[in-house]
Specification:
By secondary structure, the chain is α/β, with parallel strands linked by helices. Helix content is 35%, strand content 22%. The strands form 3 sheets. A 7-stranded mixed beta sheet has the order 5-4-1-6-9-8-10. It has a two-stranded antiparallel sheet with strand order 2-3. A two-stranded antiparallel sheet has the order 7-11. Helix 2 links the parallel strand 4 and strand 5. Helix 3 crosses helix 8 and helix 8 packs across helix 9.
Amino acid sequence: MEIPSNFSLAKNLILGCHISGVYDVNRSQILLDDDFSIIEKWANSISKLNLQAIIFHNNFSEETILKHQSEHLLFVTITHDIQFNPNVFRYSVYSQFIHKYSDAIESLFVTDVSDVLVLKNPFIQPLFIANSDFVFCGDEPTKWDNEWMSEHGSHLRSRIKDFVAVEAANKSNSLLNCGIIGGHIQTIKPLLESIWQIHKNYNFDNTTSFTGDMGAFNYMMRKNYNNRILHGDPVNSEFKAYFDDGTNWFMHK
């Protein structure tokens, strides 16, 4: 994984991953290759704030890349390991990138690309600057203990010894959403690496209809970062509310 030598890497980055040609569990369809419209609003929101993003992808054409690549958006081609669902494999991509370039990075966010907008520059917010050992993430207006998460966590629950204990201890806590994850590099690097290790070691043989990404994220966050989490207002707008009150850094659906 190489960043072109003529591309000046910013110290604060937003990373996204778009893998097409395979079934997308969120849209219930196979995403078409070379469809920039899926990430266009995300990319435009970043450009408007004069921020820099990297989109890791497997199927954008040279024509599309030439048309849309800029100082604000870099396309990096990856090879998708089909053993892992795209929602899971992205953590391998992020871990590889951070391992190689962490010395050049101060802070970053990794976000979904089809349903997330960046509303404010998160890196200049006093709350972000003052909490370098915190993880900033999305959330949902529900608790971890809900029917969907019960089904979603079924595979990892059977593979990770203390998953049930962590889940039970935090069942009344807010459900955290991995569509937005960010922080200072010294905090976010080990988090993303540990999430990938969960998927690599325990989720490679998941045959359920649930990817396990939300289960792994909530498990890791509540187990190792429970006193160092900032979510909800002002980090993200209410999930699926499609509303910006002018204070939030990110909108998620």
